[in-house]
Design brief:
Length: 334
């Protein structure tokens, strides 16, 4: 890095003087202070749907032959955002759009001195990935398996970006697993769904949930046949059903066992003299109390928390719809 030797205003020699609490360059003739400011640098980080980052292989020093985000100096007359998009297009051929600011930091470079680096997340809007004049190559790398990056600041950006995206990616992965299971006619998604945490909460609080359910079916007009039932017997039945609910959602039993269990449940309740509409209503009320308990249990500060409740609701509907269907089949067929 070169240091200024002469004044921009009068051409005389610059000297060092202690001003405003630090050493500064001052013209020995006209006394003009020459403030030195960090150079503004813009960088663009682009992540595709496969969670890969677009990197370029540097054709020039500093850090020639190393990989980095598209990066370069902001020019006069352009905003820092426009600089980031320009560098993206010049180095990779991609037309982009700013999504969000990811990081602002200072960094010292032996070639350019003090830099102020502003990094934006960008979205691809067009163009074709091809290395520009300042790059030997450009390609996508998995975000969790990147080559060593040319600049320390960019590794920190990667860590920040992962943190910013973790909830969104978790929701996306959970939704994919849920949809895949639903369309594949599966009831189990062991360890893959965000709502598994709430399923554990149901397991840990099953006694409270059942107490609420018992109080409801003992007075609800839709379950009159249960009003005179022995409370202890109903408690044991509900505990067993909740246990089965947890077992199936945790992947320990499949569709065949689900069908067999609720067919038998329907058959037994018919023998008990329970009208089919009261039986189905009792299942619906149990679903309601599981949902209401987890609703009160949930935290609502983040989008991921809202999604977790939404997903559990969908799982409850899916499970209890099947349970009701198989129960009615057993009730009518035996």
């Amino acid at each position: 890095m070169k240091t200024k030797a002469f004044c921009n205003f009068c051409g005389k020699e610059l000297v060092t003087d202690m001003l405003e609490g630090r050493e500064r360059l001052v013209c020995d003739s006209c006394k003009e202070i020459h403030y030195e400011n960090p150079l503004p640098v813009a960088a663009a980080v682009l992540v595709n749907r496969e969670r890969e980052i677009l990197l370029v292989k540097r054709a020039r020093e500093p850090s020639k032959d190393m990989w980095c985000f598209p990066i370069g100096f902001a020019e006069m007359g352009e905003s820092i955002e426009d600089a980031a998009l320009r560098e993206l297009h010049e180095e990779t051929g991609v037309e982009g759009r700013i999504i969000q600011l990811v990081d602002v930091c200072s960094e010292t470079n032996k070639f350019y001195g003090e830099l102020l680096i502003v990094t934006f997340e960008v979205e691809k809007m067009g163009g074709k990935e091809q290395a520009g004049d300042d790059a030997l190559d450009c390609r996508y790398f998995p975000i969790k398996n990147l080559p060593r990056l040319a600049f320390p600041s960019q590794q920190r950006v990667v860590e920040k970006l992962i943190d910013l995206k973790k909830d969104l990616w978790s929701m996306h992965d959970s939704m994919e697993s849920f949809v895949e299971g639903t369309f594949g006619n599966k009831i189990v998604y062991p360890g893959k769904l965000l709502s598994d945490e709430l399923v554990n909460a149901v397991e840990n609080n099953s006694i409270k949930i059942i107490e609420l359910w018992l109080n409801d079916i003992a007075t609800n007009p839709s379950t009159k046949a249960y009003h005179t039932f022995d409370r202890k017997e109903l408690y044991n039945r509900a505990m067993f059903i909740i246990g089965q609910f947890e077992v199936w959602l945790k992947g320990q039993k499949g569709e065949t066992e689900l069908k067999a269990f609720y067919n038998e449940l329907g058959f037994q309740r018919k023998k008990d003299g329970i009208p089919v509409e009261d039986l189905v209503s009792s299942l619906s009320l149990l679903k309601k109390h599981i949902w209401m308990f987890t609703y009160s249990f949930g935290v609502w500060e983040k989008a991921v928390d809202i999604y977790r409740m939404f997903e559990l609701g969908e799982r409850l509907v899916y499970f209890f719809d099947k349970a009701s269907y198989y129960t009615v089949m057993g009730y009518n067929q035996k």
